[in-house]
Amino acid sequence: QDIRNTVGNIPMEWYQDFPHIGYNLEGKKIYKPIRNKDELDMFLEKMENPDYWRTVQDKMTGADIKLTDEQVDLVHRLQRGQFGDVHFNPYEPAVDFFTHEVMIHPVTNRPADKRSFIPSLIEKEKVSKLVHAIKMGWIKPRKPKDDTPTYYDLWAHEDPNSILGRHKMHVPAPKMKLPGHEESYNPPPEYLLSEEEKLAWEQQEPAERKLNFVPQQYRCLRAVPAYSRFIHERFERCLDLYLCPRQRPAWVWLTACLSQVNVDPEDLIPKLPKPRDLQPFPTTQALVYRGHTSLVRCLSISPSGQWLVSGKDSPPRPRHSGHAGHCWPGPTSLGGAVPGPGPGPGPPQHATICLVAICVEQSVLLVNPCLGDKLLYGATDQLLESYVAPEEERVQPVQWVTATMEEHGRGVRLVVQHSKAVKQVTWHGKGDYFASVVSDNSNMQVLIHQTSKRWSQNPFRKSKGLVQCVLFHPIRPYFFVATQRYVRVYNLLKQELTKKLMTNCKWVSSMAIHPGGDNIICGSYDSKLAWFDLDLSTRPYQLLRHHKKALRSVAFHKHYPLFASGSDDGTVIVCHGMVYNDLLQNPLLVPVKVLKGHVLTLDLGVLDVLFHPTQPWVFSSGADGTVRLYT
Amino acid sequence: MAGTLTRHSSAAVHPRYERGSATNYITRNRARKKLQLSLPDFRRLCILKGIYPHEPKHKKKVNKGSTAARTFYLLKDIKFLLHEPIVNKFREYKVFVRKLRKAYGKSEWSTVDRLKDNKPSYKLDHIVKERYPTFIDALRDLDDALSMCFLFSTFPRTGKCHVQTIQLCRRLAVEFLNYVIASRSLRKVFLSIKGIYYQAEVLGQPVTWITPYTFAHDHPTDVDYRVMATFTEFYTTLLGFVNFRLYQSLNLLYPPKINGQADTELKPAEGKEYAMDSESYLEKLSALSASLARVVAPTHEDEVEMDEFPVEGETAEQMDARKKEQEALEKHKKLFEGLRFFLNREVPREPLAFIIRCFGGQVSWDKSLCISATYDVSDPSITHQIVDRPRVEQQVVGRYYLQPQWVFDSVNAKLCLPVADYFPGVLLPPHLSPFVTEQEGDYVPPEKLKLLAMQRGENPDEESEEEEDEEEEEEEDDNDKEEGEEEEEESEKEEEMKLKKMEEQKTQSNKALPVKVTAGKLRLEDKQRLEQEQQSEEKRLAIMMMKKREKYLYKKIMFGKKRKVREANKLAAKRKAHDTAVKEEKKKSKKARRA
């Protein structure tokens, strides 16, 4: 059987997956010997076949070959590092051919080459190249020895010009913290951690720990071991030095404080005039008016300061059961209820009219309280009755209804029926006009009414957001409309927008105007009070964060430089707000008194504040159902 | 229409993020690309040149609207790096390494030799000068350099970093120590559990460094030694130049020569164990026992009396205070003058020898411990022997046997402390940190109070139990006082509470209005209290008017103060508990003894 390898010396793995290796002369496949032995067969063969050890597989043909004795010998010899041929003798005696004997003739008679007598051209070429390179300075045969000393006086000539801008801008890295007593090898006993503290220390994140080691006490210096994190700490310092971003502090003394250079915190407190020097202002609670059974939403006072009206919140009742929410001085007589989300009575200020506007659900009632000067309220009634209906009916956004007899007996004179619930009502200074805010999303939110002509108009064509409250300017024909974030100032004569004040608050709750007319304060539900100087800018002159909770109401005093704010934290804060006639001088705002007294109910505190028109007294109504007077 | 037009045009003129702070900063990756450096090279360059990232004021703006965490470098810094000659040296070195590897691979040994001869090297002199234009600047930044050099000098001479670096660090550190001895500028020392802290005042600048205790390091695996090596490279250069300048300022030779070297040359037997001259020389130097040679032989007129120039606007009192301070300093410098110390072999030799020599004392040790010991144990003139064993077998009369802490505490106290507390085997008093200066309101350990009293010269120390007891009582009194202060602080709150109560009572009485008149009590109004109330109210109102950030700051400071008080109280309470426990123990033992 002459099976030979017909494929030649090629990588045999090419035929790995085939059953044959190459082809014979007839073009038939030459098959590999069948190999179907599994591990067990192999093992049995290994155990049983005595020639197993001398059997090798021929890679070229895939056949197993048993080595002959000669071949095994050859392998052994090669393994031992001997020559393959048995008969080769590596230790034949050497024949010292050249030096053995002096010969009279040369061994070779070949004459020497000419090139052995002349300098080598190739070498010359190489050398000349090197020389050229050296001449040109391309290579240096030897680096010149640097003979300057390693250390010398580097700062011999300190040049002030060498301090550049970058040195001034340089932010030096803070030095390592110096060790305290607790780092001592023998600290006072109070610095050692107790068991709980040690446990807490172990549970903390390494970055959170105040100390990066556990204080320990050793009896003598001999007992102190090496600190295992020494290299770590050095390394971390290195990282801090080159990786930690540094910042040049803009606010130098802040850093002075933070780096524990002493800045007296008392210096930070602004120097304000003493409240004592700014008297008069209300200081103590003088009276508590009780009687309301639930929240007292709103307050109003007559121009003389003799009569106070308060409106209360209560579950809605049938309308006819009584809707004259008014209140006489003294806590005794409280009549009906004022249902509705936000009733807002407002008495006119004009000397010849005596009217109270009350919003009850969807209507505004104009009530003549029939109090005080008889002439005055008689004149008011006359004025209201003198109304002559116009010939042609005008289209109005609201309905004006004259009160029925029964209602008339209670003082109600007119009912202005809106389409939606009324939130707020405010009087113009003259007493003829009043404005009402309807909780609505359309352009019908704000309406201006004229009492004598029983005529209403809708001043806006477009809604600019949810209107929170409106206000008339005391002197000039301006109208303020506060939406959630802005206060818009309209000129009523020219019928245009004059200004838009940014309150910087999230949700304005209330608004009041200085009697001078140039300053406004806005309270907001995010517990801020913004003071605007209308001449100065459309942004707040100052934003006061005195209260801890939402502001519900703000008020100015008519004569005294005082303003007050009532908030859900149950306090009324009275501030001195001096406006100077000199336009160059900014208003001076100083808080003078925090008035406490209202008890928090339903998370609500003070709902309305109001100043007495002539005295430096302030009224506040709260969610605890009381009205309090501070004098 | 017009509005849209203008907006559009403005956008065309000023696209976003192309001016202002966005262009002043550059991210690290972009900086690296601009410099065409690999990250390790960039890191090395930053370390050597002292370039650090900056925290921009408006991160979002600089980050082009993104809030991803990135490190920013100042563009100016990076541009400054562009012209650094060392960058080229880095590249040359890279080429050199490549060539060398190739030559090795081809076994061209002559080429290897030639290349090694021409190995590119760089110097950092110009960078030192550039980073520290004046000498004082360099001194201010010496803390880290010293700590690093002292650490590296303790490394084993294998692995981790080049042997030359370690040797250089050792040399520079020893030179610096010798300078501190020569100038007597050491001020404070502290044995902490991390190592030994030293603080010296070099030319008016406080320089603090820490040395590890002399044990073998177990090298952590999560530390990048390349970073540390780069820092060390720069620090050794800096420290070398600083040393040179410092030696010059004292008229000392640099590199330092030991005074009277001729003597040592005469008897070279001492240095026989050292193979090389240079080695024995460094060892002798690091023994810290010999004074250094000066350029000009010192004359006694050297110490010129400082002329006094009254500074304008300085009162006589201030001048007096300054003078006193000066005198105290002089006294402190000569603390150990005339004392002769001997260090036992179990005591760390180098720190103690250094400290004692810094304050004018003479020091020696066992001959077999280190080279250049000057006298023997048996020398009768020894005044103090520093021992760290529970007891000493053979005591020689005429000298104190003391634990090493005495030296440290004495240096910090600026006077030689009474020795009784430091005898061998005695329970040592706590070792306090000299770096803590207690401000008002901080907790002061009673030992420190005692020390302060001693410094004022109040307590002539007499060891008697009674006095100790008294002291303890005093301490208690102190604690009481502290508590009193607390009470004062709390009194404000109490007042408020009282006010509230009163108001409540008022309202209640109002509630119970249905008329009932009780006999009015005459209330004596405490005027002072009223005044205080008013003031506190005024303060509260004024705080309301603070600006937002000032208020923030104020609150922060107040918070910090309160926390401090809390911590101080906690420490005081702990101490009190500890003291009472100790007292109980004492009593018990006494009783047991009596019984």
Automatic annotation (TrEMBL), chain A:
<dbReference type="InterPro" id="IPR001680">
    <property type="entry name" value="WD40_rpt"/>
</dbReference>
<dbReference type="InterPro" id="IPR015943">
    <property type="entry name" value="WD40/YVTN_repeat-like_dom_sf"/>
</dbReference>
<dbReference type="InterPro" id="IPR028598">
    <property type="entry name" value="BOP1/Erb1"/>
</dbReference>
<dbReference type="GO" id="GO:0043021">
    <property type="term" value="F:ribonucleoprotein complex binding"/>
</dbReference>
<dbReference type="InterPro" id="IPR036322">
    <property type="entry name" value="WD40_repeat_dom_sf"/>
</dbReference>
<keyword id="KW-0690">Ribosome biogenesis</keyword>
<keyword id="KW-0853">WD repeat</keyword>
<comment type="subunit">
    <text>Component of the PeBoW complex, composed of BOP1, PES1 and WDR12. The complex is held together by BOP1, which interacts with PES1 via its N-terminal domain and with WDR12 via a high-affinity interaction between the seven-bladed beta-propeller domains of the 2 proteins. The NOP7 complex associates with the 66S pre-ribosome. The PeBoW complex associates with DDX27, BOP1 interacts directly with DDX27.</text>
</comment>
<feature type="region of interest" description="Disordered">
    <location>
        <begin position="309"/>
        <end position="346"/>
    </location>
</feature>
<dbReference type="GO" id="GO:0070545">
    <property type="term" value="C:PeBoW complex"/>
</dbReference>
<dbReference type="Pfam" id="PF00400">
    <property type="entry name" value="WD40"/>
</dbReference>
<comment type="function">
    <text>Component of the PeBoW complex, which is required for maturation of 28S and 5.8S ribosomal RNAs and formation of the 60S ribosome.</text>
</comment>
<dbReference type="GO" id="GO:0030687">
    <property type="term" value="C:preribosome, large subunit precursor"/>
</dbReference>
<keyword id="KW-0539">Nucleus</keyword>
<feature type="domain" description="BOP1 N-terminal">
    <location>
        <begin position="15"/>
        <end position="282"/>
    </location>
</feature>
<keyword id="KW-0698">rRNA processing</keyword>
<protein>
    <submittedName>
        <fullName>Ribosome biogenesis protein bop1</fullName>
    </submittedName>
</protein>
<dbReference type="GO" id="GO:0000463">
    <property type="term" value="P:maturation of LSU-rRNA from tricistronic rRNA transcript (SSU-rRNA, 5.8S rRNA, LSU-rRNA)"/>
</dbReference>
<dbReference type="Pfam" id="PF08145">
    <property type="entry name" value="BOP1NT"/>
</dbReference>
<feature type="repeat" description="WD">
    <location>
        <begin position="544"/>
        <end position="574"/>
    </location>
</feature>
<dbReference type="InterPro" id="IPR012953">
    <property type="entry name" value="BOP1_N_dom"/>
</dbReference>
<keyword id="KW-0677">Repeat</keyword>
